[in-house]
Amino acid sequence: MKHLLIPIVAVAVLAGCASDPAKRAMVATEESGRLTAPTTPLSSYGRFELKPMEMGPEVANDATKAAAVKDLEARVQARVQPLLAQWNAQGANSAAASRTLIVQPRVMKLRIVGGGTRFFTGAFAGESSVDMDLELKDAATGTVIAKPRIVRSASAMGGAFSIGATDRNLLDYIADIAGQYLQDHRK
User: Fold this and answer.
1) pTM, entire model
2) Tally of structural domains, the chain
């Protein structure tokens, strides 16, 4: 019986490590609802442009953090770019076709605990966190219509129990919240 218990516990732990899309969607909806709405409806724009991810000085001067930002940028691109491409196609023949909105993500602070560190030090490695601004700016006037700050962390204990899965999933949560925020304010 003892020998059967070990594989069952291992499967349970590994199953808990996977990022659940339904949970991420629920969290993204809740977090998006807490963020300040744009001063101008996104539906008043006909074109949307996603700029490359920028980094605050604290992040840009650290090679490990900069590499994590590249990973986050890829996830944001994967979630946001198809949405913006769809909106660009819909807005091409609308009255708002001449108005362009610039979407500029900017990571101000980032701390991701690596897998090896998490494995060997567990919760003592601390929590992982991301602090990202999502600036929305009118291309013609330069007016910033929104600059929500998306801040999320993965607890140290959660990271220890999941052997780093919560640390790795954190970037997915940030990307999902950014995409949800844009969807919520396009209506």
Assistant:
1) 0.85
2) 1
